[in-house]
C-alpha cells in the first residue's frame, strides 16, 4: 500500500522544541510571555513591519483588523472572491456585508481595474466600503500599486490577507506590509505553523495598542475588571509563540522548498496538452504555498475532477482551487463585480500536494499519476509514452 501524500502538512524545524521547553521550564504557560514578545519582534525584523500582534488565528487577526478600521453593522467591505472563506467570515462577524471582486487572469488575484470600477460605482451611490480585503492567493502577490492607488483615491483602508503569503514579496518588499493592516496565518497547513495562530501587522502604534486591548477582552485600565467595549480572547499562547519562533528560523527554507516543488511539477507537466500553471507575476516573488494548475478537459482528455479522483485512488490528496465566495451558498445574496475569471479557475483549477516536507519521490508519484490519466485517454499509445509511464 502506498503511503498517503497530503496537500500541505506541518513541517517542524530543529529549534521549536527548545523554545517550548524553555516555556515549560520557566512556567510561562500563558497567553502572554517572553516568547510572544520575541515572536512579534522577530516577525517585524523579518518582514520589515513596524509592529506586530500575535493572535490565536489568522481569522482572529482579520476580525481585529476590520474592527480597527471601524467596520460596523450595515457597512460594506470589498473582498477578493477567489479565496478561502476565512477572508470574508470576519466581515459578517461585525454585521457588515462583503462585496466581492473578481480576479485577473495574470495573477489570479483581485483585478485592480474592477476594483477601481466598483469603487467608482459606490462613490456615485454615495456609499463607499469601509475597507478592502486584498488576498494574496496561494502565496502570490496581488498587483498592489494600482490597488493601493484606487483605495487611496477614496481614502479606504486596505487590509492585506497574507495568510498564504508569508515570505512572498512585491517589488522586493514583504507582503502584508503595504496595506493599512496586514494579517498572516500559522495554521497547520500554512507556510509556517504554530499549530494554530496568526499575526497582525501595522505601522500605526495606536491601532496596534488597540488590537492588543481588543484581543484581551477589552479590559479598561483599572485594578478591578472593568469593560467599556466588547473585546475578544484572541491572544496567542506563549507555548505556541515558542513554536513560531522556531518556525521563523526556517521560513526562507520553507518557501524555497515550496518553490522547488513548483519547479519540479512545472518541468514535468508543462508540455502536457491542456495543462497551464498559475503564472508568477513579474512584480513579485510568490511563496508557491500550493502549486496550482488548470486542466482544459478537451485538450488534456480528462477534467479536473477525474484527475483529482484518479489521484485519490493512489492515496494522493489534491484539491480544487478555492470555490469563489460569490458562489458560496452563504453569500448567495452578496454582490460581485465580475466573477467569470474566478469561476473558470474554480472549474478547471487543481492544487497539487505542496508541503515543504515532500520528498522528490513523492512529487514523482504525483507526476506519474497525472501523466497516466492523460495517456490513458489517448487512443494512440506511442512507445515512448509507454516508457514514460513506467519510469
Ligand atoms: C488560512 C487562511 C485564513 C485564516 O487563517 P486561520 O489561521 O486558519 O484562521 C485566512 N485567509 C486565507 C486566504 C487563508 O488561506
UniProtKB/TrEMBL annotation:
Q: Which residues carry this modification: N6-(pyridoxal phosphate)lysine?
A: 190
What is the originating organism of this protein? Nostoc edaphicum CCNP1411
- PANTHER family assigned: DTDP-4-AMINO-4,6-DIDEOXYGALACTOSE TRANSAMINASE (PTHR30244:SF34), TRANSAMINASE (PTHR30244)
Under the heading Gene3D superfamilies, the entry gives: Aspartate Aminotransferase, domain 1, Type I PLP-dependent aspartate aminotransferase-like (Major domain)
The superkingdom of the source organism is: Bacteria
Q: Which of UniProt's keywords are assigned here?
A: Aminotransferase, Pyridoxal phosphate, Transferase
What residues make up the catalytic site?
A: 190
Tagged with keyword Oxidoreductase:
no
One example of the protein's molecular function in GO is: transaminase activity
One Gene Ontology BP term is:
polysaccharide biosynthetic process
The name under which this protein is listed is Aminotransferase class I/II-fold pyridoxal phosphate-dependent enzyme
Amino acid at each position: 500500500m502506498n503511503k498517503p501524500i497530503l496537500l500541505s502538512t506541518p513541517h517542524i524545524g530543529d529549534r521549536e522544541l527548545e523554545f517550548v521547553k524553555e516555556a515549560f521550564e520557566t512556567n510561562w504557560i500563558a497567553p502572554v510571555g517572553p516568547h510572544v514578545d520575541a515572536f512579534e519582534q522577530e516577525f517585524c525584523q523579518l518582514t520589515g513591519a513596524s509592529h506586530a500582534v500575535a493572535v490565536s488565528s489568522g481569522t482572529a487577526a482579520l476580525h481585529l483588523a476590520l474592527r480597527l478600521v471601524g467596520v460596523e453593522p450595515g457597512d460594506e467591505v470589498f473582498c477578493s472572491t477567489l479565496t478561502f472563506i476565512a477572508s470574508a467570515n470576519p466581515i459578517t462577524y461585525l454585521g457588515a456585508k462583503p462585496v466581492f471582486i473578481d480576479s485577473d487572469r495574470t495573477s489570479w488575484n483581485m483585478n485592480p481595474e474592477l476594483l477601481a470600477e466598483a469603487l467608482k460605482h459606490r462613490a456615485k451611490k454615495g456609499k463607499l466600503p469601509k475597507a478592502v480585503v486584498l488576498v494574496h492567493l496561494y502565496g502570490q502577490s496581488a498587483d498592489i500599486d494600482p490597488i493601493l492607488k484606487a483605495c487611496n483615491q477614496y481614502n479606504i483602508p486596505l487590509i492585506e490577507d497574507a495568510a498564504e503569503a508569508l515570505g512572498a514579496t512585491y517589488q522586493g518588499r514583504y507582503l502584508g506590509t503595504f496595506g493599512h493592516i496586514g494579517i498572516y496565518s500559522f495554521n497547520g497547513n500554512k507556510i509556517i505553523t504554530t499549530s494554530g495562530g496568526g499575526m497582525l501587522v501595522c505601522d500605526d502604534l495606536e491601532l496596534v495598542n488597540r488590537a492588543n486591548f481588543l484581543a484581551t477582552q477589552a479590559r479598561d485600565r483599572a485594578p478591578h475588571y472593568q469593560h467599556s467595549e466588547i473585546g475578544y480572547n484572541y491572544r496567542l499562547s506563549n507555548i505556541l509563540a515558542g513554536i513560531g519562533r522556531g518556525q521563523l528560523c526556517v521560513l526562507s527554507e520553507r518557501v524555497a522548498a515550496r518553490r522547488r516543488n513548483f519547479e519540479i511539477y512545472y518541468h514535468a507537466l508543462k508540455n502536457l496538452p491542456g495543462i497551464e500553471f498559475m503564472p508568477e507575476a513579474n512584480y513579485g516573488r510568490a511563496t508557491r504555498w500550493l502549486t496550482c494548475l488548470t486542466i482544459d478537459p478537451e485538450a488534456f482528455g480528462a477534467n479536473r475532477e477525474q484527475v483529482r479522483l484518479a489521484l485519490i485512488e493512489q492515496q494522493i490528496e489534491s484539491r480544487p482551487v478555492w470555490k469563489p465566495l460569490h458562489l458560496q451558498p452563504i453569500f448567495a445574496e452578496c454582490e460581485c463585480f465580475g466573477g467569470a475569471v474566478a469561476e473558470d479557475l474554480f472549474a478547471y483549477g487543481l492544487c497539487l500536494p505542496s508541503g515543504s516536507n515532500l520528498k522528490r519521490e513523492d512529487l514523482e508519484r504525483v507526476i506519474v499519476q497525472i501523466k497516466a490519466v492523460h495517456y490513458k485517454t489517448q487512443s494512440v499509445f506511442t512507445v515512448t509514452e509507454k516508457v514514460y509511464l513506467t519510469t
